[in-house]
Design goal:
9 strands; nine-stranded mixed sheet; about 325 residues; alpha/beta; about 40% helix; globular
């Protein structure tokens, strides 16, 4: 099922935001200086999105298996699902729009749908999103048009899925990307030059034991993503700095999750406002004021000896995005 048509005003605003992001970022990897092309991807700052697929969720679908039983019962009231949507949507750009804006790391959570026959899988964040198959095809279409761009697809949460669902999903991943898939290799060997020579564009991280049966599935422990779980910006910054210092293990990528997470009391106090108007605006205010968030990324992009795939919510936020562009182009070899 695809997102319904309508709400033209919102769609036009989203297109304008996407257009602003995409002006010069669809091919940023291919445009990097020559010195960085032979530098391990694990040492570059790669922009990413949190719950990357959640630009659209289906209010008419059942509540996802990632939710507590009490929430599922409450969701029988139609108003509850409308409120859930306000807190489940963490992006407002499609995969294509995010890719055109420069996003290269994608945080993916997947589930089967209760009562549905077969092994079809959907993206999930409280409510069901689009089919995984549709999302993968959208990403592949972009890669066909931009052969020097590389994406990191992190399948890190699975719900209501047995081995048959996983086999089905893995076969679809292979079917859509084929030779673009990069087989597991020593992380330090994986550079842009390496990827271009092999004609690879996709690294799949799969947090489920079946990864051992497929050469193109990287184990989840090669992409650790520690989570601050806080609503406080300053605690988040402290957490990011601490985990940066601790991530000295050899041979992994690493995600810095630049996200604020609502607590139950946060949602209760701001029920109607939703995630974007409650926490994201608070986060962006620090960016607008030029405070520590961007200083952290600028510092780590130059000093870290480990990858910094960093993920944030609502990646189309203009001030946040414009500031990040300066960091991408300011990455230098250590």
């Amino acid at each position: 099922m695809r997102p319904p048509a309508g709400r033209e005003g919102g769609r036009r605003r989203r297109r304008r935001a996407a257009g602003a992001m995409a002006e010069s970022n669809a091919d940023w990897m291919g445009s990097l200086p020559a010195a960085l092309r032979s530098y391990p991807l694990s040492n570059l700052a790669i922009p990413g999105s949190h719950d990357s697929f959640s630009y659209w969720v289906d209010e008419k679908s059942p509540v996802g298996p990632d939710q507590a039983t009490a929430i599922k019962r409450l969701a029988r009231i139609s108003l509850v699902k409308k409120i859930m949507k306000k807190w489940s949507v963490t992006q407002n750009l499609t995969f294509k729009e995010q890719l055109e804006g420069g996003i290269r790391y994608f945080d993916l959570r997947v589930s089967s749908k209760p009562g549905e026959i077969g092994q079809e899988t959907y993206f999930i964040h409280g409510l069901f999103g689009i089919k995984v198959w549709d999302g993968l095809k959208e990403i592949n279409t972009f890669l066909e048009q931009h052969p020097k761009e590389v994406v990191f697809l992190d399948f890190n949460h699975f719900y209501a899925m047995d081995d048959s669902h996983h086999f089905f999903l893995i076969n679809r991943i292979h079917s859509v990307f084929g030779s673009k898939l990069c087989s597991v290799e020593c992380v330090e060997y994986v550079t842009l030059q390496y990827m271009w020579e092999k004609k690879h564009q996709v690294l799949i991280f799969y947090h489920y034991p079946l990864y051992t049966e497929y050469s193109f599935l990287w184990p989840g422990n090669k992409m650790p993503a520690p989570w601050a779980n806080t609503t406080n910006v300053h605690k988040l910054l402290q957490f990011l700095e601490t985990t940066l210092e601790e991530r000295s293990r050899y041979g992994t990528f690493h995600v810095s999750q630049a996200i604020l997470t609502p607590r139950v009391k946060t949602i209760a106090r701001h029920l109607i406002r939703g995630l974007k108007n409650t926490l994201v605006h608070r986060y962006c205010c620090l960016v607008i004021k030029g405070k520590n968030v961007l200083n952290f990324y600028s510092k780590t992009s130059k000093e870290s000896s480990n990858s910094m795939e960093w993920a944030s919510s609502f990646v189309s936020s203009d001030s946040w995005h414009r500031s990040r562009l300066d960091i991408w182009w300011d990455v230098q070899p250590l």
